[in-house]
Amino acid sequence: MHTTLHALARTALALGLMLLAGTLSQRAAADGASNPNVYPRSSDPLGTSYNDWAALWAQWAFSLPAQKHPLFDTADCSEGQSGRVWFLGGKFCQATDSGCSAGSATRTCTVPAGKALFFPVVNVSCNTKEAKQGLCPPAKLNLAEMRAWANGIFEQTQGIQGTLDGQPLGANLKWNFRVQGPAFPIVIPSFPAGQQNLLQAIGEPSIGSGDYLVADDGVYIMLKPLSAGTHTLQFSESAFGLNITYALNVR
What we know:
Strand content: 25-35%
Radius of gyration: 21 Å
Order of helices and strands: HHEEEHHEEHEEHEEE
Number of domains: 1
Structural class: alpha+beta
Shape: globular
Number of strands: 10
Number of helices: 6
Oligomer: single chain
Protein backbone atom coordinates (compact mmCIF):
# COMPACT_ATOMS: atom_id res chain seq x y z
CA MET A 1 0.00 0.00 0.00
CA HIS A 2 2.82 2.36 0.83
CA THR A 3 4.33 1.67 -2.59
CA THR A 4 1.00 2.36 -4.32
CA LEU A 5 0.52 5.65 -2.51
CA HIS A 6 4.07 6.62 -3.31
CA ALA A 7 3.47 5.87 -7.00
CA LEU A 8 0.21 7.83 -6.98
CA ALA A 9 1.95 10.74 -5.33
CA ARG A 10 4.70 10.67 -7.94
CA THR A 11 2.09 10.52 -10.72
CA ALA A 12 0.17 13.43 -9.22
CA LEU A 13 3.39 15.39 -8.86
CA ALA A 14 4.34 14.67 -12.48
CA LEU A 15 0.90 15.75 -13.69
CA GLY A 16 1.12 18.85 -11.56
CA LEU A 17 4.51 19.73 -13.00
CA MET A 18 3.21 19.14 -16.52
CA LEU A 19 0.23 21.42 -15.88
CA LEU A 20 2.48 24.03 -14.32
CA ALA A 21 4.86 23.83 -17.27
CA GLY A 22 1.93 24.20 -19.65
CA THR A 23 0.65 27.22 -17.73
CA LEU A 24 4.07 28.85 -17.69
CA SER A 25 4.49 28.10 -21.38
CA GLN A 26 1.13 29.72 -22.14
CA ARG A 27 2.06 32.74 -20.07
CA ALA A 28 5.40 33.05 -21.83
CA ALA A 29 3.70 32.77 -25.21
CA ALA A 30 1.13 35.38 -24.21
CA ASP A 31 3.95 37.63 -23.07
CA GLY A 32 5.84 37.17 -26.32
CA ALA A 33 9.07 37.15 -24.34
CA SER A 34 11.07 34.63 -26.33
CA ASN A 35 14.21 36.77 -26.39
CA PRO A 36 16.21 36.56 -23.14
CA ASN A 37 17.41 40.14 -23.64
CA VAL A 38 13.84 41.49 -23.42
CA TYR A 39 11.90 42.12 -20.23
CA PRO A 40 8.46 40.45 -20.53
CA ARG A 41 5.53 42.80 -21.03
CA SER A 42 3.92 41.62 -17.78
CA SER A 43 7.03 42.34 -15.74
CA ASP A 44 7.98 45.49 -13.83
CA PRO A 45 11.48 46.19 -15.17
CA LEU A 46 13.65 47.74 -12.47
CA GLY A 47 10.57 48.05 -10.27
CA THR A 48 8.50 50.08 -12.75
CA SER A 49 5.69 48.85 -15.01
CA TYR A 50 5.74 49.09 -18.79
CA ASN A 51 2.88 51.61 -18.52
CA ASP A 52 4.94 53.88 -16.30
CA TRP A 53 8.04 53.49 -18.46
CA ALA A 54 5.97 54.63 -21.45
CA ALA A 55 5.04 57.78 -19.51
CA LEU A 56 8.69 58.35 -18.57
CA TRP A 57 9.71 57.90 -22.20
CA ALA A 58 7.18 60.55 -23.26
CA GLN A 59 8.44 62.98 -20.63
CA TRP A 60 12.00 62.47 -21.88
CA ALA A 61 10.94 62.98 -25.51
CA PHE A 62 9.08 66.21 -24.72
CA SER A 63 11.76 67.57 -22.40
CA LEU A 64 14.22 68.32 -25.21
CA PRO A 65 14.12 70.98 -27.93
CA ALA A 66 13.93 69.68 -31.49
CA GLN A 67 17.15 71.52 -32.27
CA LYS A 68 19.01 69.30 -29.79
CA HIS A 69 17.10 66.04 -29.83
CA PRO A 70 18.23 62.45 -30.56
CA LEU A 71 14.97 61.58 -32.31
CA PHE A 72 15.41 64.49 -34.74
CA ASP A 73 19.04 63.41 -35.22
CA THR A 74 20.16 66.83 -34.01
CA ALA A 75 21.94 65.45 -30.93
CA ASP A 76 23.79 62.38 -29.74
CA CYS A 77 21.71 59.57 -28.24
CA SER A 78 23.08 60.48 -24.79
CA GLU A 79 21.17 63.77 -24.74
CA GLY A 80 18.82 63.99 -21.76
CA GLN A 81 19.63 60.48 -20.53
CA SER A 82 20.05 59.64 -16.86
CA GLY A 83 19.56 56.75 -14.46
CA ARG A 84 19.57 53.05 -15.17
CA VAL A 85 17.51 53.26 -18.36
CA TRP A 86 18.25 55.06 -21.62
CA PHE A 87 15.51 55.92 -24.10
CA LEU A 88 15.61 55.31 -27.84
CA GLY A 89 12.94 55.90 -30.46
CA GLY A 90 11.81 56.53 -34.00
CA LYS A 91 12.47 59.41 -36.36
CA PHE A 92 10.91 62.88 -36.25
CA CYS A 93 11.31 65.54 -38.92
CA GLN A 94 11.04 69.29 -38.55
CA ALA A 95 8.20 70.60 -40.70
CA THR A 96 10.60 73.01 -42.39
CA ASP A 97 12.99 70.22 -43.46
CA SER A 98 11.64 69.01 -46.79
CA GLY A 99 14.55 66.62 -47.25
CA CYS A 100 13.93 64.70 -44.05
CA SER A 101 12.51 61.18 -44.26
CA ALA A 102 10.17 60.70 -41.31
CA GLY A 103 10.14 57.23 -39.85
CA SER A 104 13.45 56.05 -41.29
CA ALA A 105 16.84 56.34 -39.59
CA THR A 106 20.14 54.56 -39.13
CA ARG A 107 21.99 55.62 -36.00
CA THR A 108 25.07 54.83 -33.98
CA CYS A 109 24.71 55.07 -30.22
CA THR A 110 27.32 54.55 -27.52
CA VAL A 111 25.65 53.17 -24.39
CA PRO A 112 27.32 52.84 -20.98
CA ALA A 113 27.48 49.27 -19.72
CA GLY A 114 24.70 48.34 -17.32
CA LYS A 115 22.01 50.50 -18.95
CA ALA A 116 18.65 49.03 -19.92
CA LEU A 117 17.07 50.44 -23.10
CA PHE A 118 13.41 51.39 -23.50
CA PHE A 119 11.71 52.49 -26.70
CA PRO A 120 8.46 52.43 -28.66
CA VAL A 121 8.51 50.36 -31.82
CA VAL A 122 5.46 52.38 -32.82
CA ASN A 123 3.13 54.56 -30.75
CA VAL A 124 0.27 57.01 -31.18
CA SER A 125 -0.50 59.77 -28.70
CA CYS A 126 -2.80 62.73 -28.20
CA ASN A 127 -2.56 65.35 -25.45
CA THR A 128 -5.32 67.50 -24.03
CA LYS A 129 -4.18 70.67 -25.84
CA GLU A 130 -4.07 68.88 -29.18
CA ALA A 131 -7.52 67.44 -28.51
CA LYS A 132 -9.03 70.86 -27.76
CA GLN A 133 -7.59 72.26 -30.98
CA GLY A 134 -8.80 69.42 -33.18
CA LEU A 135 -5.34 68.05 -33.88
CA CYS A 136 -6.64 64.62 -32.86
CA PRO A 137 -9.89 65.00 -34.80
CA PRO A 138 -12.65 65.70 -34.08
CA ALA A 139 -12.12 68.70 -31.83
CA LYS A 140 -12.59 68.87 -28.05
CA LEU A 141 -12.23 65.18 -27.26
CA ASN A 142 -12.44 64.00 -23.67
CA LEU A 143 -9.87 61.53 -22.31
CA ALA A 144 -11.91 58.46 -23.29
CA GLU A 145 -12.32 59.81 -26.81
CA MET A 146 -8.61 60.66 -26.99
CA ARG A 147 -7.80 57.08 -26.13
CA ALA A 148 -10.28 55.80 -28.72
CA TRP A 149 -8.67 58.05 -31.33
CA ALA A 150 -5.18 56.75 -30.51
CA ASN A 151 -6.52 53.19 -30.55
CA GLY A 152 -8.08 53.71 -33.97
CA ILE A 153 -4.81 54.90 -35.47
CA PHE A 154 -2.85 52.12 -33.78
CA GLU A 155 -5.22 49.48 -35.16
CA GLN A 156 -4.11 50.49 -38.66
CA THR A 157 -0.51 49.45 -37.99
CA GLN A 158 0.81 46.36 -39.73
CA GLY A 159 3.92 44.24 -39.83
CA ILE A 160 5.38 45.37 -36.52
CA GLN A 161 8.75 43.68 -36.13
CA GLY A 162 11.97 44.03 -34.20
CA THR A 163 15.27 42.21 -33.88
CA LEU A 164 18.38 42.39 -31.74
CA ASP A 165 21.48 40.97 -33.40
CA GLY A 166 19.20 39.23 -35.88
CA GLN A 167 17.03 37.54 -33.25
CA PRO A 168 13.34 38.53 -32.92
CA LEU A 169 12.53 40.69 -29.93
CA GLY A 170 9.41 38.62 -29.34
CA ALA A 171 6.42 36.97 -30.95
CA ASN A 172 3.46 39.00 -32.25
CA LEU A 173 4.73 42.32 -30.90
CA LYS A 174 1.54 44.16 -31.81
CA TRP A 175 -0.42 42.33 -29.14
CA ASN A 176 2.13 40.86 -26.77
CA PHE A 177 3.96 44.15 -26.14
CA ARG A 178 1.11 46.59 -26.51
CA VAL A 179 0.94 49.30 -23.84
CA GLN A 180 -2.40 51.02 -23.18
CA GLY A 181 -2.05 52.53 -19.74
CA PRO A 182 -4.11 55.30 -18.18
CA ALA A 183 -3.61 58.85 -19.44
CA PHE A 184 -0.48 60.32 -17.91
CA PRO A 185 0.79 63.87 -17.29
CA ILE A 186 3.69 65.45 -19.15
CA VAL A 187 5.36 68.82 -18.82
CA ILE A 188 6.53 70.58 -21.97
CA PRO A 189 9.10 73.16 -20.86
CA SER A 190 9.77 76.59 -22.30
CA PHE A 191 12.80 76.79 -24.55
CA PRO A 192 14.98 79.77 -25.52
CA ALA A 193 14.19 81.78 -28.63
CA GLY A 194 15.01 79.85 -31.76
CA GLN A 195 14.19 76.48 -30.23
CA GLN A 196 10.95 74.52 -30.53
CA ASN A 197 9.39 71.68 -28.62
CA LEU A 198 8.76 68.39 -30.39
CA LEU A 199 5.18 69.18 -31.41
CA GLN A 200 5.93 72.69 -32.61
CA ALA A 201 8.77 71.33 -34.73
CA ILE A 202 6.62 68.73 -36.50
CA GLY A 203 3.97 71.29 -37.45
CA GLU A 204 1.85 72.07 -34.39
CA PRO A 205 3.07 75.61 -33.56
CA SER A 206 0.19 76.32 -31.17
CA ILE A 207 1.25 73.63 -28.68
CA GLY A 208 3.47 75.62 -26.36
CA SER A 209 4.89 74.92 -22.94
CA GLY A 210 2.56 73.65 -20.25
CA ASP A 211 1.19 70.69 -18.33
CA TYR A 212 -0.88 68.24 -20.34
CA LEU A 213 -2.48 64.81 -20.06
CA VAL A 214 -1.54 62.29 -22.75
CA ALA A 215 -3.44 59.28 -24.07
CA ASP A 216 -1.00 56.85 -25.67
CA ASP A 217 -1.27 53.51 -27.44
CA GLY A 218 1.72 51.62 -28.74
CA VAL A 219 4.20 48.78 -28.74
CA TYR A 220 7.09 49.25 -26.33
CA ILE A 221 10.17 47.17 -25.59
CA MET A 222 12.54 47.17 -22.63
CA LEU A 223 15.93 45.60 -23.32
CA LYS A 224 17.97 44.29 -20.45
CA PRO A 225 21.52 45.68 -20.13
CA LEU A 226 23.50 44.30 -23.05
CA SER A 227 26.93 42.72 -22.99
CA ALA A 228 29.91 44.88 -23.86
CA GLY A 229 30.54 45.20 -27.58
CA THR A 230 28.52 46.08 -30.67
CA HIS A 231 24.87 45.14 -31.10
CA THR A 232 22.39 45.84 -33.89
CA LEU A 233 18.83 46.81 -32.97
CA GLN A 234 16.27 47.07 -35.73
CA PHE A 235 12.54 47.73 -35.58
CA SER A 236 9.96 48.49 -38.23
CA GLU A 237 6.29 48.82 -39.14
CA SER A 238 5.01 48.48 -42.71
CA ALA A 239 1.77 50.48 -42.98
CA PHE A 240 3.35 53.79 -41.98
CA GLY A 241 6.82 53.02 -43.32
CA LEU A 242 8.77 52.97 -40.06
CA ASN A 243 12.28 51.52 -40.24
CA ILE A 244 14.85 52.25 -37.54
CA THR A 245 18.30 50.73 -37.08
CA TYR A 246 20.65 51.35 -34.17
CA ALA A 247 24.28 50.26 -34.02
CA LEU A 248 24.71 50.07 -30.25
CA ASN A 249 28.22 50.26 -28.87
CA VAL A 250 28.08 49.12 -25.26
CA ARG A 251 31.10 50.18 -23.18
